[in-house]
Write a structure and sequence with these properties.
Belongs to the DprA/Smf family. By secondary structure, this protein is an alpha/beta fold. The chain has 14 helices and twelve strands. It has two domains: 3-76 and 293-359, Arc Repressor Mutant, subunit A (Orthogonal Bundle), CATH 1.10.10; 89-286, 3-Layer(aba) Sandwich (Rossmann fold), CATH 3.40.50.450. It has a nine-stranded mixed beta sheet with strand order 1-2-6-5-4-3-7-8-9, with helices on both faces. Strands 10-12-11 form a three-stranded antiparallel beta sheet.
Length: 360
């Protein structure tokens, strides 16, 4: 990949209204990021809006800032882009990393849980992380308070990956400044956000998909119902990864999420040996390191106004599955994807989890 193509790909993902799905579709259709950037304004105009692309100088400044911080970029298609994450729907086209990238190529296990975790749960998470490290696994977590912090503390000596919902130069929570520095120095620190980005509520579910995507399995140690840790577990399950949970007292609200996961089929975990048995050996079919596979079907170009109107008529404010839209309109998937892409670039369409879309 040339340096110009690397710059263009970063410009493409930094452009307004272009996310991981539309990035893949644009790359599938145009082949190079440069061609995609040139096509964005015309595609957005067809969708009834005005398309914009990221300024090259702003992206070059971002790259310089990242390098000054000792960080580097991993782009989808790079040989060392994490191969398990590459399988994840909506995987980030660009990561900013600091530390030992080779850790992501080893057998990884995510440990997540409550921020307001009990002392017993924190101790268990720390011990579990130590046991996994001794077994040769790398522990992935989110550098949050509670279980995440304990998981990193227990594995930083053997290998840990911290995924953050902010810029590589931002610390959150503030009390984890020393731990975050240690992870970046002795482990691997990962983000998809440019330097200086502050942690916003909407960034955390996106961070959780990276945590789940990096790991062969996710262990939830302690979690209340509807917590972010359960989002990570759900994403792991949807990606075909193992979902594991540590049981707790039914009298403790912080254990209800884990107990519910076990009722729904998650593997009950009592020690590191249980985890290693559950994740087993890595299926060779999941390894396609260094290969850029844009899963989206290349979008077509010839859409009549009648076809466009028929597709838009099936959309509304409530999220609808894309495959259902395709079934109902009876048009070729490439035509439907083209119209959805045009609407998204025009700012008229939102994408949701589970391949669903809605009109703004």
């Amino acid at each position: 990949m040339s340096e110009q193509e690397r710059l263009d790909r970063l410009r493409l993902i930094r452009s307004p209204r272009i996310g991981p799905v539309s990035f893949r579709q644009l790359m599938a259709r145009f082949g190079t990021a440069g061609e995609a950037l040139r096509a964005v304004p015309d595609l957005a105009a067809r969708g009834g809006g005005k398309g914009q692309v990221a300024d090259a100088r702003a992206v070059e400044a971002e790259i310089a800032r990242s390098r000054s911080l000792g960080a580097r970029y991993l782009l989808m298609g790079d040989a060392d882009y994490p191969f398990l994450l590459d399988q994840m729907e909506g995987a980030p086209p660009a990561l900013i990393v600091k530390g030992d990238v080779a850790l992501a190529a080893r057998s990884c296990v995510a440990i997540v849980g409550a921020r307001n975790a009990s002392a017993a749960a924190c101790r268990f998470a720390r011990t579990l992380a130590q046991e996994l490290g001794q077994a040769g696994a790398v522990v992935v977590s989110g550098l949050a308070r509670g279980i995440d912090t304990a998981a990193h503390q227990g594995s930083v000596a053997s290998g840990t990956i911290g995924v953050i919902a902010c810029g590589i130069d931002v610390v959150f929570p503030p009390e984890n400044a020393e731990l975050q520095d240690q992870v970046a120095r002795d482990g691997l620190l990962v983000t998809e956000h440019p330097p200086g980005t502050q942690p916003l509520a909407r960034h955390f579910p996106a961070r959780n998909r990276i945590i789940a995507g990096l790991a062969a399995g996710t262990v939830v140690v302690e979690a209340a119902p509807k917590s972010g840790s359960l989002i990570t577990a759900r994403l792991a399950g949807e990606a075909g990864r193992e979902v594991m949970a540590v049981p707790g007292s039914p009298l403790d609200p912080r254990a209800q999420g884990c107990n519910q996961l076990i009722r729904e089929g998650a593997i009950l975990i009592q020690n590191g040996g249980d985890v290693m048995e559950a994740i087993g050996s890595l299926d060779a079919r999941m390894v396609r390191q260094g290969r850029m596979d844009f899963l989206a079907e290349p979008a077509g170009t010839d859409v009549t106004e009648q076809e466009r109107a028929a597709i838009i008529a099936l959309l509304g404010p409530a999220p609808a599955p894309v495959d259902e839209v395709m079934r109902l309109c009876g048009l070729a998937p490439s035509l439907v994807q083209t119209v959805l892409l045009e609407l998204e670039l025009a700012g008229r369409l939102d994408r949701h989890a589970g391949s669903r879309v809605s009109l703004r």
